[in-house]
Amino acid sequence: MSDRPDRATRRDFLKLAGVLAASTAVGCKLESHVPETIGAPANDRVTGFDRSVLDAVGNAVLPAELGEKGRDAAIGQFVAWVDGYDPVAEEMHGYGYSDVRYLPPDPAPAWRAQLAALDVMSRKSRQQPFAKLSIDARRELLAPMLASQGSDRLPEPLHAPHVALALLAHWASSPDAWDLALGVKVLPGTCRVLGDANAKPLPIIGLRA
Prior knowledge:
Elements: H1 5-25, H2 51-61, H3 67-83, H4 108-126, H5 135-147, H6 163-172, H7 175-182, E1 184-185, E2 202-203
Antiparallel strand pairs: 1-2
């Protein structure tokens, strides 16, 4: 006797639930998909940053323990994240609410303007482009800007009021930052095979490069 449709549906659901439970148990981050809006206009956002100034900011605010290659990678990941951001996109529905919510507007124009202003200030007050200043001089220019934000905690990257905070907050929320803080490779939010679930995390080697 063949299964009734309702039995087949329950069986398929239980199989799917088992797969999801197994994947989350070993640290897999499942991708969510937001349906595209019908008839939505093409994304014609301006992308990119003045990398000479942004790199100089990154070298001033990111931990020295990352080394040159680590800082370059962190800055590149930040730029890719900002360039790929979809402003005011509909969020996935979370638990506990049913209303439609949207992501914040595009923060990139303000961040680009801040980089330009930082370079102008450097040229006027130090007679040099910001990228040509020493690390200490860059930090001296950045310090009052960051102090004026009035917070002792890093914000969510999207809500960062200054590009230096956004860059640092984006890195601080990454698996690399967790590994650096703990001194071992734990790689939070990434997939691991079941055989490695109980393995001791490997130490970080060659942190400076």
